[in-house]
Amino acid sequence: MKRLFSILAITGLMTFGNVQAQDSTQTAAPATEQVADSTATEVTTDEATATTDEAAAEEVTFTQGMKKRFIEGGPAFMGIVLICLILGLAIAIERIIYLNLSSTNSKKLISEVESALNSGGVNAAKEVARNTAGPVASIFYQGLDRYSHGLDSAEKSIVAYGGVQMGQLEKNVSWISLFIALAPMLGFMGTVIGMIEAFDQIQSAGSMEPSLVAGGIKVALLTTVFGLIVAIILQIFYNYITAKIDSIVNDMEDASISLVDMLSDYSKK
Fold it and tell me: What pTM did the predictor assign?
């Protein structure tokens, strides 16, 4: 009987020990999974943070890179190139504003002047031209004002004042073309001077070491890059301005022909 109780006790202890071992294993497994999950979360967070840092570094590099390169190019030639850009943009913006304000609906103006001329005579047509802005209206006013001296005099006045208005439209545009040519030329000059300085360093050192000339050559090339960038920017504005001027001039010529025809028909009445 004692032996039976001993066997049962040993069996119970072994069973209880196995149950506890299984419970501890099951408890440890979720803990391990939680640790693994937290570790994975931390790794993911670290990777996201690293990605964010890299993106921020790339953004800083993009925004600050041009400034850094500009400073590395040296103040002498880079400053002059920057002045060319500022002055060229200032003139381009002023011309764009002026040309947009000078644009006129020529067909509407011609119709209003013709109606006023037929109903109220030359003075009524002059009043319409006076109250309308733009070079086309100014040409109309000058032609109508000289009509009292004859049709030929009015036609000559239209042609002459058309040339004056064209000069107003093209005012200061030549400066933009100057800056377009000047900026890359200054950049090339800075490059040549930088190369000369690099060869002077080689001559002074008596040996051809890349570290001696790499910095000078880089600085020299930066002036060319920025000069070309300035020229490209100003060239875009210049082409837009010239296209706008051509459009306004074509309207002026068409409107002038229409005005001469109207005055000719009016003189026959």
Answer: 0.68
Percent of the chain with pLDDT over 90: 19
Contact 74, 227 (CB under 8 A): no
Stretch 136-146: mean pLDDT, rounded? 88
Contacts of 77 (CB under 8 A, 6+ apart): 186, 187, 189, 190, 193, 223
Q: Cα(71)–Cα(9) distance, rounded to whole angstroms?
A: 89
Instruction: Give the chain's largest Cα–Cα span.
Output: 150
The CA distance from 88 to 233, in Å, is 9
Is residue 189 classed exposed, middle or buried when 0-12, 13-18 and 19+ CB atoms within 10 A define those classes? middle
Residue 216 confidence (pLDDT): 65
What span, in angstroms and rounded, lies between the C-alpha atoms of 52 and 268? 81
Q: Where are the alpha helices (DSSP H) in 73-172?
A: 75-102, 106-120, 122-130, 135-145, 151-169
